[in-house]
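ASSEMBLY PREDICTION REQUEST
Request ID: AP-0331
Submitted by: J.K., bench scientist
Number of chains: two
Total residues: 1624
Priority: normal
Notes: Please return the full assembly, not individual chains.
Input sequences:
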Amino acid sequence: MGLEALAMDQKGYRRGSFQSSTSDEDMLEIAGASVDLSMADDDPPLDREMGGFSTYNGGGMNGKSTMMDFLEEPLPGVGTYEDFNTIDWVREKSRDRDRHREITNRSKESTWALLHSVSDAFSGWLLMLFIGLLAGSLAGLIDISAHWMTDLKEGVCLAGFWFNHEHCCWKSNTTFTDRDKCPEWKSWSQLILGYGEGAFAYILNYFMYVVWALMFSLLAVLLVKGFAPYACGSGIPEIKTILSGFIIRGYLGKWTLVIKTITLVLAVSSGLSLGKEGPLVHVACCCGNILCHLFTKYRKNEAKRREVLSAAAAAGVSVAFGAPIGGVLFSLEEVSYYFPLKTLWRSFFAALVAAFTLRSINPFGNSRLVLFYVEFHMPWHLLELVPFILLGIFGGLWGAFFIRSNIAWCRRRKTTRLGKYPVLEVFVVTAITAILAFPNEYTRMSTSELISELFNDCGILDSSKLCEYVNDFNSTKGDDLPDRAAGPGVYTAMWQLALALIMKVFITIFTFGMKVPSGLFIPSMAVGAIAGRLLGVAVEQLAFYHHDWAIFSGWCSQGADCITPGLYAMVGAAACLGGVTRMTVSLVVIMFELTGGLEYIVPLMAAAMTSKWVADAIGREGIYDAHIRLNGYPFLEAKEEFSHKTRAMDVMRPRKNDPPLTVITQDSMTVEDVETIVTKTTYSGYPVVVSRASQRLVGFVLRRDLIISIENARKKQDGIVSTSIICFTDYCPPLPPSSPSVLKLRSILDLSPFTVTDETPMEIVVDIFRKLGLRQCLVTHNGKLLGIITKKDVLKHIAQMANQDPESILFN
Amino acid sequence: MGLEALAMDQKGYRRGSFQSSTSDEDMLEIAGASVDLSMADDDPPLDREMGGFSTYNGGGMNGKSTMMDFLEEPLPGVGTYEDFNTIDWVREKSRDRDRHREITNRSKESTWALLHSVSDAFSGWLLMLFIGLLAGSLAGLIDISAHWMTDLKEGVCLAGFWFNHEHCCWKSNTTFTDRDKCPEWKSWSQLILGYGEGAFAYILNYFMYVVWALMFSLLAVLLVKGFAPYACGSGIPEIKTILSGFIIRGYLGKWTLVIKTITLVLAVSSGLSLGKEGPLVHVACCCGNILCHLFTKYRKNEAKRREVLSAAAAAGVSVAFGAPIGGVLFSLEEVSYYFPLKTLWRSFFAALVAAFTLRSINPFGNSRLVLFYVEFHMPWHLLELVPFILLGIFGGLWGAFFIRSNIAWCRRRKTTRLGKYPVLEVFVVTAITAILAFPNEYTRMSTSELISELFNDCGILDSSKLCEYVNDFNSTKGDDLPDRAAGPGVYTAMWQLALALIMKVFITIFTFGMKVPSGLFIPSMAVGAIAGRLLGVAVEQLAFYHHDWAIFSGWCSQGADCITPGLYAMVGAAACLGGVTRMTVSLVVIMFELTGGLEYIVPLMAAAMTSKWVADAIGREGIYDAHIRLNGYPFLEAKEEFSHKTRAMDVMRPRKNDPPLTVITQDSMTVEDVETIVTKTTYSGYPVVVSRASQRLVGFVLRRDLIISIENARKKQDGIVSTSIICFTDYCPPLPPSSPSVLKLRSILDLSPFTVTDETPMEIVVDIFRKLGLRQCLVTHNGKLLGIITKKDVLKHIAQMANQDPESILFN
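STATUS: Completed
Returned structure:
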């Protein structure tokens, strides 16, 4: 089942709409075959569940004593959800509380039960430990493989083909002048032709570079297409949706994990303009989901499992950047939906374990935890806030531009024939990227290396082109270099960087959303870092040549070191990342963890804030939210306030001219009546009322439970025939002796459905749905049942109010 | 109105109980005079509010169109709350949304309105800036004054009496050998007797030390008692309660701010075993509250104001420790109740501004932001986790012991005559502290200096006693000192530290809760740091003398530097602070910001986790929660799960044998009937039903609105007499022509009260109250109104289920 099935081809799919009052004809086309998911949802596999009465009291509020029965003897399939459905948070949390209560009560009975209770309490921590270890190890593996394969595009190590360029030269015994040019490392032309210089050698290297890139990316897209369609993209929009309570089976499964890990390495190595940070979050969440199966507590409860996934997301960011605190805040701010304090603490633990596992593996060979370690020495001046804010504006503009263009391109991919040829698309984009990238050394190197180099502050011994300043050793004191005139190397680098910037800006738009694992963090940061470095060098040169200007007087005298271009690169990176993702605190904290100094938080924050404001002024949504909306996931955004003045009666079904709500009466319908209702409608549940005339609400009953119970009673209970009265009350009314026996179904009735009055403002209804995680809510007027609002209705209404077509938003 | 009035003397006070079904006879004794707060609550000052109909739709859900009326023409007093009442979060948030909607709609009309809309959007940021600046400045002022006054107890500077010891010696032009012994600084004996050595000089210095300490603390307690009784204590329990929605007028007022700032300096300088960190949070919250008055948006809305206070709390911790990220997480984890993401970002901004303001003031004279800056060089070994976990256990035991003893002592203070003599109590405790403290140099110095010294890793040039090791310069390489044998200085220091530990452990129990500002962070950290340093030195000596033992082999050979006693002190401090406050992530992050290295997070985390588990096993509550419960604040804990199997019907009023619920019918009661109900009962609101017979719920009306409306109608509306029918419906039933005119009161009816069914499990009801911030909730059965549950009922029920006497818990 492919993401394209979910996102591209089908007309719609069943989501949170636990019950709706319109007949659901939505069909989900999966891998070319049309499957009616509403059938899958509404018609339970009866043969599986004939074992007894289903005592599951789904729907609104519950957790009553009847719950305990099936805790003791769980029926297969009861309490689980179908694919593409929304979970009921209230019910899941109730179930967990029941389970916990049960264990606590038993723990007083025997020592063994006490031990069980203790182990249950610690299982969460153990799970976090495992997730941290696994996520850290996988991240290490990915880092090492990607590093090696990236270098493979340029050459091979004679001392052992499994060494990357850097390792190869470490292993070298011979002396060599240039840091990276050891004799053991052979470029492809050296290996094949025997020499590395000259036009032909260059062309050969160029050719090999493009060929390897194409090989890697084709392998990646074929693996994704063939084995795990969910492995493509960054995964963060889908994880946000899953954490909000949606179910996408297999999205966090073992196949996705395996394929995503492999294809991520391939995609990164192919030199495409993508990063591994977002996909690493997906990989970590897969680890979390798979490891949940070790513990019943988490395997069987969708709400508890989501707590684990939140923590896993934190571990993912933690290993992606080496920033455990930033990871936790990212999970809190960006990804998670329900984030209790207990999860905060556990996420932190998982993030730390993951970070330290990664450090023990030491993939960068420098004992550093962080991806881009930087150390700046110079404080910044208040006036520098002006260029920092300019970078913020650039970041915001770039973010808004990127989101618009990328969404437009993805929409085109979905709606035109373009989407039918994902392999060809990847081939073309890779070819263009590789061909454009090779001639420019700043695009030829891997993007994270590029960012590292841009962040770097030039020391005395730096040999890179970016540090080719005109040296004046007379004024040098110690390691602190004063501002100097740029040499020819710097000017060349500036041109190359400007070209690299243009290329990255455009190619990233087409890359993000292809059928390979692709993260956005690194390309966004690269764009910002290039812009920042360019601006930084410009300001530096301005200050060097014009230190007598009024704006420089007092803080930037001749021969002083006032401007750090690396800091500008870092600020630019933060601004662009902020513009694209609209992260705020987590972004600044991740950057803070990279530099390790509180000193630079203010510039970072100024840029991030400006960037967010500018981007928000152009378009409210971050890239992840935009993709959620593009794909029509049923995500009830917790950040945005619903600010319209509609009321519950405007949203509820039935609408004015619709037929009245289908209800079941508590003690006057026969088995046949109910069976007719169930057959004629496709709703997932029905309100139960005192009588049709009074419409006073008694409770809510699920279609699934109703069918199972009647089916079972007809088979096993004597005297239940079509004319038997179904009775949902405690004491059924006396019947004439000749009538058939009564079918008592109180046990399947949810006696505490959520209700609101018809006059309730929608802003409050939205708040209730969001905070309590409801699936549906009944609407009453003066105590009489009027209608029902499902999560689907709420989402449709929000889309409608935002002037978006509700149908195209939710079912595309 | 004193905190003692709130916490000690009275039998009870009216809290969140917006309506209860028992007659409230609770009296609040304030400053000796008995005031019936329920009267103050239930009988609005009518003369103030006669101007028109109150269109305020308080109670459950609202935010309807009628809301807009009073937005345009606010009536005095409407929409505000009485003292010691709980706010209705739903209503406040609705009101803010209405206000926001209004401004947004208007912004399209004119440029000025657009500017107003923009300035409204930015006012939150501006407010944060002001809070940061003010909190940072105050913290700087407090730091500088406390430093100076602490030194004043020992002597005075001849170069200028306003210099503290350290500054005095910086100003000195003469050369002197010992770091701190410059000729300009005169101890009291030097000043008075002319010499500083000898028994008599020692006794004189001792005497002056005690006298100054007594003077400071007496001044502090008298100021607190005389001017701002709310200024005592740490303030964090009360701030938690306020943030959860309770109103304590004046607790965050300007008098509290002024007096708390002054007395905090006095209390810290007096040498009592207390810290300034908790009170700084209170000071910052006062700043936040006062600055809210600058902006209508925050002044008039209790929910928005609480968002600001959350951010202010973050700024407070930020300046207390120089840890902005830790501050935000502290606010999130420990203090705040409602913490939307927008607040997270703003808190961070406020915390940063505050931290940088403090750094610009530079109170420690070392350009460091943090209170205890430490830099360790040596990595730790995995085996060292054993002593770290031991420190965690110690921290947990100390935390649990401290909480129990302190609560027992505070209870005794409240219930016996002890509480009547706060000044005497402070006098005695200060005298004992000062007398015991002077002879021991580790208790004589200020607690934060002590902690600094304990955290410090001994360098080559360190002259303190703690660093008097037997030097072996042959094995020294650079600045890294190997483990060495302890010299006599270390042994003396060990004994003194052990004595200091015992003293601190006991004196802190009696100090926290006295009528002076007193924080707990520093004393707790001191206890832990001493214990940690003792253990650290012990392990170090063990490793030095027994490096051939199996446990040391492989990582601690002879002459290696394996053990850093300062790290043990830091881990111990974290463990003890964790045991007392039960902070987790914020604690680790604060400690991380102090050291600035991810390296030591794992030891800190291991200790904090162990400490929390050990302390939780002995008693669930942290010190702040324990004080909240002791003082009977209506705080609905968001962290604890309610895990009992009771249902709404078990909690609601009326109970089984009570008289039925007082209701008003929608169109059949006369003005006289309603006035009788209002006179005979004291409830704050009444449900409105279709008819007494059907009991079908229509809405909820507030007593306050009812009285105002009737009063107003009788005066201004023709034909309204006692026999007039009151009608809450849209269309009133036709009456015979002879009858008096009908009083239409639909506008004051809340048409969307929250309801649950009687079968709803209490765990879900508690969840709803917590997440939505309700004040009351109506209970129905089959659409008929059965009863009501107020926040008070919920709190009482939780106390009852936890085997605590509900009355003594909530009204003491």
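REVIEWER COMMENTS: Chain A has three domains: 128-361, 382-470+481-631, 648-802.
SIGN-OFF: pending second reviewer
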